[in-house]
Fold each of these.
Amino acid sequence: MTTPALRVLLCASEIFPLAKTGGLADASAALAAALDGLGVKVHLLMPAYGPAIDQVVDLAPPVALPDIMGHSGGLLLSGKTPDTGIPITLIDYPQLYRDGGGLYLDADGHERPNNPQRFAVMAHAACRFALGEFENDRFDLVHCNDWHTGLLPLLLKTRAVDEYPASVFTIHNMAFQGLCPMDLLPELDLGLAPDQLGRVEYYGQASFLKAGLEFADELTAVSPRYADEIQTEEFGFGLEGVMQARSDHLTGILNGIDRSVWSPSVSPWIHAHFDQDHMQGKAACKLALQRELGLVENPNAPLMIFIGRLTWQKMADVLLEALPHYLALEPDRQFALLGTGEIALEEAFYRMASEHVGRVWVSHAYSEECAHRMHAGGDFLIHGSRFEPCGLTQLYAMQFGTIPIVRPVGGLADTVVDATPGTLAAGTATGIHFAGTGAEDMLAGINRTIALYRCPDAWRSLQRAAMQTDFSWDTSARAYLSVYLRALSARRLSD
């Protein structure tokens, strides 16, 4: 494919390593780097959180932003990302993005009540930047990610006085919709005509997500299976009708992973490096992890890990119910958990660890370094989900020879091949599926995994196939480029 010199503005609320709460940050950064490798002139944009400002390199002199929605004193801070050198612009309104707390939660751990205003301001600033209003070059296309950027495709159409960039909106999770009262819309200054209000209205509220779905030229979901699922009542969260109506403009593109970071042969944070042909390092990593976490040092003990959010979506409640049964079946079974979420679940898992010292370890202080060591040292990953747009944790685990146990929904179904007699014989199995959402279903998947773990030849075959999977961003970036070209073609035809 011949790549035109496209200028693409990729907008997200978080971008690794500047700010991260989940897979959105990883996906945004890695896609930008892959597009850059294809010759696309990609430029990143996100809010100017304090840690992000501290990490950007080659900062240019700031550019003053106009008052937006009554907020003054804004600046455009442009530089490059510290790891890949991709151009990036931060939208700096200190009163919105640097007032303590996290990206979306305040210092007390509650959702920020002004999140609609925070991300509407970002969308307004991004729109003007995309249109070249700050003595910068205009962009050909704006790639928006998740509900935080949902107003941007709308603003590109209502604010531009002549030609405006094409837009692509990526759905990372339909469950998070960016809702606010309809009577807040005048403050958000969207320029909507009365007959357009229905395109943002969601059961009596306004939805940033719905705005993105309705006004973007093209839509993508982060896995092919999820693109189909969100057109159904079970997974559409009340927007399945919108998705069905726009199905001709919806493409499912699987998220990739950055193998220059997530690989046991290069990770700087693990005890020993290894690869699919030299697995001695994984055994060393397991013993080092057991020592670090205070678990009994036993190379033969099955070590199950969980890395993720403690939420209903991730079936953390089911895992909590299943865990005592998992531990009771064999005395050498171990479990390690790294993740934050609902307070009641966090406290319950901590109690579990205190009751099973040497067998269970729990931490809610997430760190990228610890996550790498757990992937390297764990034997299998439990990754139950009631719905899963794509999932990255299972992809990371497979790269490290840690076998994922998943409920086959969304991207989990697209990425993990169940270990059946046929797939094991063919050498294509990469993990274990379990079908239901009950503790007994999860336990059945776990026990099937341990049975394979106790058979070294079968387990080695699973590990080899898992580690050979190629989920690099190259293929996905080319698929995004095709969507970009389709959006630009449609825009030219409509102008």
Amino acid sequence: MPPAKFLAFDFGAESGRTLLGILDKDRIRLEEIHRFPNTQLNVSGHIHWDVSYLFGELKKGLTCAAQQGHRKLSGLGVDTWGVDFGLVGKDDRILGNPYAYRDRRTEGMMEKAFRLMSKKEFYSLTGIQFMQFNSVFQLLSMLETEGHLGDNIATLLFMPDLFNFLLTGKKCSEYTIASTSQLLNAKTRGWEPEIFEKLGLPLRIMAEIIPPGTLVGRLKPDIVRETNVFSVDVVAPACHDTASAVAAVPAQSGRWAYLSSGTWSLLGVEVDEPVIDEHSRINNFTNEGGVDGKIRFLRNTMGLWLLQRCLKSWELMGDALEYDELAGLALEAQPFKSVVDPDDHTFLNPPDMPAAIRKFCRKTGQPAPIKKGEFVRCILESLALKYRFLLDKINAICSDPVEVLHIVGGGSQNEVLNQFSSDATGLPVIAGPVEAAAVGNVMVQAISKDVLSGIEEGRKMVSRSFPLKNYEPEDQERWDDIYGRVKGMFS
């Protein structure tokens, strides 16, 4: 039987990529076909995604696949970041560029929403972590600023659903991406009418929800002609990139937690049913959709964004650094000079991240970093200590204590952070695969096409196919001491 080939389009907030997944015998092999930057547009003081550019790069990925000899595919699938969406008019035209979640238009929207529906009621229905950029608050901001969500709007489509629509002409919302919106009932797994009614939002614009692994439709004939690939099925994988990444966690046994490490850090466990109680609400944990009927019980915490923005600030000052220089700088710096809460609101999108970090340190009575290595070490140590804080909360809420931490995604290449994470949590860490979202995307497509029997077989194949690196905790007494002193600043 010839190898099965699946194309995965993995869009992140910083970059996008087209990867070819080849399943041959008992291995998955990834080949990079196309990679491109994802740059936000600043238009009239608001931040948008350039959907025309991104769709053009998607088609370029198809063209590159054809040019590299991969015209015949078993399927293709798209995954992206969560919460953001585009609006489609009654004439099937996209109504402007989608807003980006870091746009400031949602400031104050949570408080407005809680005057219409209590925070406790919100959480009891959705089980979703409160963040000001969630889709529900984006919609409310449109209602507040425009006075209405116009009659010309036919359908709301989340980012991967929007690309699926452009590829096939079919409108639907895949479950894992829909679950990030805070508009879904966590238990029924359908849109929650009470939220729409109390906030005055139009339920009519929401698309039908489909499970991961659903065939959306065939690639449009005009795109087939333009890109020179053969006609192919477009499959909705786990369209939320984190759901795809978690699907690819190479866990074999025991009680494990996952950390999808990148611009954001998403740390949690898989459970069979939503965990919605007072403890999970107070600690702001989320219940997002997963693959194979699972729920991803997790906290979304700031990740390498702090480091990315420091690098950007230094670059603007004419002192650009490469990522491979950062490890040496961090290890040369003084340990535990200062610790920040990565989720402090001042770090969401400051114009100058190093200045924001210095300000936080001064506010909390700590020496502020000066040298670049001090900033890098502060960020990496703070992230690792925050992971310890969140794992402690998970162990308190869920019955079985976590025994091992799997780190997947681009951040799994940061060996210093991986070791710090093991040191801070006291857990063995297994790092890899790096392109976890694309691997999970390919896996779900393969399951939908009966190339794989299910998620268990897929995870076993991942563990055989990609290099994994193990870390064991070191210097635990010192990390325990530091954690005891700083955990009070974390929220």
